[in-house]
Amino acid sequence: MRWRPSTYLFASGAASSLGDGIRYAAMPLLAVHVTRNPVSVAAVAAALSAAHLLFGFHVGAVVDRFDRVRLLRRTQLIRLALMLVLVAAVAVDQATLPLLLVAAFLLGTAELAADTAVQALTPVVVQDAGLEKLNAGLTASQSVGEDFAGPAVGGVLFAWNPLAPFVAIAGTLAASWGFLTRLRVPGRVARPAVRQSLTAEAREGLTYLLREPTLRTQAVWAAAMNLGVAAANATLVLYVVEKLHLSGGTYGLLLTCAGVGGLAGAAAVAHTVRLLGRVPTMIAASLVAGLATAGIALTGSVWLIGAFQFLAGFCGVSFSIVGRSLRQSITPDALMGRVTSIYRLIGFGSLPLGAIGGGAIAHQLGLGVPFLLAGAVMVGSTLTLGLLTRRAHTTRPEPVRQVSAL
């Protein structure tokens, strides 16, 4: 049976996401195995995400400069090599804290490049009408691998043998690379007549995003939505345990409700877009997500909170998938990596601010207030930035997409 390019990209992403989920459980457990110092353990987690702050502006220029398919294959090989180093270190009981910090930073850097390359390749692998379907598949596999199956497998394997989860991660990375070797799509964009510095090339992506009305308003809208989501998520555990006096297990089940809602949203999003269109789907999803978030503060019923979590997960994933597809349909291929990385910087940059702000508001005003304010921010941004995005998108000309031959 001959697979389509989209199937190979999906299979590679699914294998990689499963490995990431295993790593999310195994790396902190290994860090605790090496040291019980809270600062040192937190440093390992910070090292995994540090690349986003250090290289987030430039990584898109790297993705646009080189053949994206080859770059994706090589980043997976780099991650595999790093994981094999960790396997060897754990096997001989030499997994030191400095080694974990360096490995975590390099793994995070390679993962950032791989994620950006995947998003840049998606509109090359499928036509515009198929973007929602492939993005939904990638998102669903990421959710299953990173939120459900992977962490559970990682925890069980580590309890059995600390070496086992890292061997499993290496296996998933090898599988991901193997699928990518079968991917046959154009990976290189047209070379510019004069090669600039990475910073100058990254600025071209920023300039395009700022000058393109749909992308500009969409990026700020996504940042506002993430601000509200982060504020609510950061304080949910305190609201459940301290205000509602429920157990930690109940909190875990509420998170599962959001995860199940996300999977349902990924399954339904292509049908919703065919019915409503892209921007109207985003507007409807963000409005419902905002109302569901505010609703958490208005009830003490765990069943209603579970329903609100399901709705928030359903709508949040729908918003994310359609937003990604909209961005990919607008952006010229030559700028896809740069616009993707800069959009993610703007959109995700509000997450830590939202988390810190939610905690501060809960401390000063009460545990229910962050949910009300988060819902208000999400609904308010939809009624302003969402409607501006719709207006800008309905009046924009269609882009001319140029992709080089193999």
UniProtKB/TrEMBL annotation:
What stretches pass through the bilayer?
Answer: 41-63, 84-107, 163-181, 219-241, 253-272, 279-297, 303-322, 342-361, 367-388
- InterPro entries, A to Z: MFS_dom (IPR020846), MFS_trans_sf (IPR036259), TM_effector (IPR010290)
Record's CDD domains? MFS_MefA_like (cd06173)
Instruction: Give the membrane topology, semicolon-separated if more than one.
Output: Multi-pass membrane protein
Q: Give the keywords, sorted.
A: Cell membrane, Membrane, Transmembrane, Transmembrane helix, Transport
Family matches, as SUPFAM superfamilies:
MFS general substrate transporter
The question of whether Coiled coil is a record keyword is answered with no
List localization entries. Answer: Cell membrane
Q: Which residues form the Major facilitator superfamily (MFS) profile domain?
A: 214-406
Give the matching Gene3D superfamilies: MFS general substrate transporter like domains (1.20.1250.20)
This protein's record includes keyword Hydrolase: no
Principal cellular location given in the protein's record: membrane
The protein in question is named: MFS transporter
- Which organism is this entry from? Actinoplanes hulinensis
